Amino acid sequence: MWSAKEIQSQLAIIDGQKAPDIVIKNATYLHSIFKKWAQGNIWIQGDRIIYVGERMPAMFEGTECVDAYGKKIVPGYIEPHVHPFQLYNPETFADYAARRGTTTFISDNLILFSMLDQQTAFTFIDQLNELPFSFYWWARVDSQTVLQNEKELFNPVDIVKWMERPDVLMTGELTGWPRLLQGDQNIMQSLMESKRLGKKIEGHFPGASERTLARMKLLGADGDHEAMTVDEVGRRLQQGYAATLRYSSIRPDLPDLLKGIVEKEWDVFDHLMMTTDGSTPSFYREGVMDQCIQIALDAGVPPIDAYQMASYNVARYYDITDLHSVIATGRFATLNFLEDEHNPVPTDVLSKGKWVLRDSIPSDTFKAVDWKALPAFELPYELTDEDFTFPSSMGIQMINDVITKVYESDLDLSSPTIASGDECYLMLLDKNGKWRVNTMLKGFGNNLQGFASSYSNTGDVLLIGQDWQEMKRAFNEIKKIGGGMALAENGKIIETLPLQVAGGLSVQAMETIIEEEVAMKKALRERGYAHGDAVYTLLFLQSVHLPYVRITPIGVVQVMKNELLIPHVER
Length: 571
Description:
Layout: H1 4-14, E1 22-31, E2 36-45, E3 48-53, E4 64-67, E5 72-75, E6 77-82, H2 90-98, E7 102-107, H3 110-115, H4 118-128, E8 134-139, H5 150-153, H6 156-163, E9 168-174, H7 177-181, H8 185-196, E10 200-203, H9 210-218, E11 223-224, H10 230-238, E12 242-246, H11 254-264, E13 272-275, H12 289-298, H13 303-309, H14 312-317, E14 335-338, E15 348-351, E16 354-358, E17 361-362, E18 394-398, E19 404-408, E20 423-429, E21 435-442, E22 450-453, E23 461-465, H15 468-481, E24 484-489, E25 492-498, H16 510-526, H17 534-540, E26 549-552, E27 555-558, E28 563-567, E29 569-570
EC number: 3.5.4.2
Domain Adenine deaminase C-terminal: 403-562
Family: Belongs to the metallo-dependent hydrolases superfamily. Adenine deaminase family.
């Protein structure tokens, strides 16, 4: 981590032969091991804490001296379960999060793994490591949908190369666990490699019974973030899981979970973590992990426990306390300065020895990665009338944002328009133009002429609407702008959300992405979308880890029965 030359320079500071870069004096800081507030002085050189204690350095020449009197200092917050590709990209999200004190991500690698060759993906990760921010990663073992080349893409040989990286801390999340129980040898081999390499395995077990949790524990799962009730939290803890409590745009369970735990007087906070679980941009207007800490404080969690749940507990679980979440000698100099422990929004943030927030003023925007170097989004074909052929009256009905069921449509599916009602035509189109899947979608909108999105689980195009011509218009618009979302109506484009990076990510700052997302969601609500988060609906229409019916590259699938209801059609 640090070279011999750097360590010798650090030792010279201790020996009084050299001045540190920064000294924070009169510090009242959270000592994560003692679980107490301590007082002292903090010496920093580069990105490392050199000393914490009562002493002051012998030399001060060129040293930045910071008087922390009246402040409380806590370790930088860690988000342990990040999907950093929800319209934003990892860099823009990290830039935004750091200003609120979240300075470490443990991130999903799905997009990088599935879209890029390994060397290119690793190059992007290495560029991110140049930032004053800490990135760690997962190693996915399944696609979360049904791909035609699933076994070839998610093969143990390529997956283990990710696991062998020191910045990959976790295998999963295991959305494909039913296949594992059915004997999938690829997934089993990957999990065995994960155990050999000492990586944690994260489950994805919504509604799991005690029996299922026990079986998955025997298969290697270490943690799970899907508890939706206090009893489900207790069930996971009882089986020996690490439980991560969720506060996201589609599962804002954290307040009720923590209130329930406090009421039950469970002394388990040392074994809990928190996550926002890859929420969509506008959800983060109130913060990232600072938002979770505030919820914990409001629920009656003792302040030190609340901060540890968003820092030390995560670092201890993933065995990175030698670098993170202990304000002590040898760790990264990553510190949040607070007005008091009851307000987790920092006034100052030091991340790896760099100020990313000083006196509530942010530093320069993060710019280490050229995200436009990802493959451009191009649609090398035109839609024809033949593409608008709907072979089955069977369709997908939305129960909420992400849960669906099968229904039968009574409409004339040869008609190019739907005059009224909450049924829409739904198409999944291969981005390369080789295949399509056509069905119906009930409950997404009731006055929606044409909507297109290249933001989807697989990067293929979703078309939704009640007018074939306007659906074509929306398709042509995302083709024109290089990917994103487009809403067409009465011969015009009403709203767009450009996603210039591979058709799925924006290069804009989070504040801009938030405004664009809010505008698109408002337009969809005005046209009948009545659920919580339309962006998550688009993402999860293809995701087979949720019940009951999904549109995938192989066709419309009945998930629980593993049954193909409507096959894809070659174009």
